[in-house]
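Lecture 7 notes: from sequence to structure.

We start with a single chain of 68 residues. Read the sequence below before looking at the structure.
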Amino acid sequence: MATPAKNTKGKPVLSQSGDFSPDSIEAQTAKFLASGGKVQQIPLGVSGQVATTGPRHITLGKRHLQTQ
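Now the structure, written as tokens:
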């Protein structure tokens, strides 16, 4: 006997705002440059991510609790 399908709700689909056609992107870029904006070229292989965590030292067991 088959089990009935669960009544699950998915995440709502968000509509994209703005026009992403090639003509619109060119117009937006021209407007940005005309208002004084500058385009920065990033060298290949450079990442914008900054590591916010340091090294992770883990201790297995209760060895760190022993006193000598």
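Helices lie at 22-34. Keep this in mind for problem set 3.
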